[in-house]
Amino acid sequence: MPERREGRGRRIGLELGGRGLAVVLAAGMLVLPAEEKKKESKAEPARPAAKAEAPAKPAAAAPGRVEPVRPGAMAPGRMEPARPGAVAPGRMEPARPGAMAPGRMEPVRPGAPAFGRTETRPGMLPGGGRVPERQVVRTRDGGEIHRGPGGMVREVRTPGGAVIRHSPGGGRYLEVRRPGGRTVFAAGGGRYGYVQGPFRSHGQEFTQRTYYRNGVREARIYRPWAYGGREYQIYTPNHYYRPGFYTWAYTPWNRPVYYGWGWNSRPWYGYYGGYFAPYPSYRSPAFWLTDFLIATTLETAYLSQTSNGAPPPAYQAPLPPEAKDAVAMEVQRQMAQERADQAYNPYPGQPPAQPALFGPNGPRVFMVSGDVTAYAGNQEVGLMEGDILRSPYPISPASEYAQVMVMASRGGLPLHSYVSVRTVDLQEMQNHLQATMDQGLEQLQSGQGRNGLPPVPPEAMGAVKAPYTDDIKPDDQAERELSAVVDDANKSEKDMLAAGGNPPAAQPYAAAPSQAYAPSQPTGGDISLGMSMDQVRGALGEPTSTVNLGARQIYMYPKLKVTFTNGQVTDVQ
């Protein structure tokens, strides 16, 4: 396939009352697996303070360090009491004059350039940087081609309304917005994506996404929220568990659990084996959920990219243990916050207002769930599935971007460096974490008492539906619509880029999942420094494999290795 969980805050209801909070506070401390316990004097997931490899941000903990608890500060895992005048968790600050109403989008700005002309669209970034200028060329049929600083295609807007994005990390995704609030998002040749549309239940407005992956459809519910012209979708669970099960899930297990995942025979695990390995044993459900989250993210990435006709980018360096432990701490912190929210907002169906992302107890650690374009200073960089980010300070909705620290990078970004990421992308990462944790909790409950997992008390078994659950119906046209959108977008992009003289930065989607990858035939020619990736492919044909390292990419041929920096040849071996 939770910080403060918006949908959860209204779920357990009066059934919970105030009974479980003391259990959370008592069990809020994580216990490291047996292998790590030898290295720590306390059974906590936090490691000893690491060396700060980057200057500390003002009023924030130094990158890579865990700030000690100050006298009078709340202990880890506890919820800070609301300060006078502060907005209570789950409530919304009063709308500012001129703010966009929830669910509404800004109108298209006037003054679009005439076809054939070029415009630049710079923007400010946290820390004083600027979004690199992009050249935007309009075509005669009404489409647009956006190129980054190195001339690489970053976005294609087709006359039919599709927006095709090429990330610096090599991902290719398309989105089509249709009348009536309907949106189609596709990746991996249409084998993975979703169809989104409005959903109304019990007098409340929601958004429903029908996800489609490898022939399986799954419906998820979100709450729309808009601020500053940006639209956020907030994941909202369609069921919740009984208080006793949350107590079981929050409490460290009495003995180490040796769990058999059964991943050894799966292709994705062999491919990412150099990056990810599960904990050898589990002393807490939070660590088990962390491995479930990472594995689900990487498996989805593998299926998405291999179905695109080319192998996913290779990466061998292992996931830093402190980054993985930070995810486990975030999982535990979000479960504690969820329990506190249940006591604060006991009425199921009552919506929170703004995303928890912008709250005082919002998420601080994020796992990237799809290729994302970020900025390091004034340079475009690519984030990939499985990368781990940390925000050392609260995130503001007033800015389009937030500055976060890199804790783990499959693309080779320097650890403890800072990058700027759109807050909309951070919310999607949070959505992914919450939805995947729900899947993990479901698997924990269904698998309790087996494969080494401790049993759950009988009275804690089962789940309670949200008020809108019975109204949710997966869109039975999702697969067909995804396929049609992919076919139309592929053809339009090919025609537009052929007319513009440049092929896309990444391979088009496969026409069907079974279609084999067919490299183009080389035209012959010499390779020299400064050549573009397109020129190299034209001379040598398609590479046998590629390595994406953000701004640096490598094409592997049987007897040749070609290295590109910002889209141009810088080394040939």
Task: Please give a quick description of this structure.
The protein is α+β, with helices and mostly antiparallel strands and 573 residues long. The protein has helices at 21-27, 34-37, 243-250, 267-271, 285-306, 321-344, 423-446, 478-500, 533-540; strands at 118-119, 123-124, 130-131, 135-138, 144-147, 153-157, 162-166, 172-178, 182-187, 192-201, 204-213, 216-227, 230-236, 239-241, 365-367, 372-376, 379-383, 388-390, 401-408, 418-422, 463-465, 545-549, 552-557, 560-565, 568-572. It has nine helices and 25 strands.
H/I helix tally: 9
Number of strands: 25
Query: Could you tell me the strand content as a percent range?
Result: 15-25%
Give the strand line-up of the largest sheet: 1-4-5-6-7-8-9-10-11-12-13
Radius of gyration: 24 Å
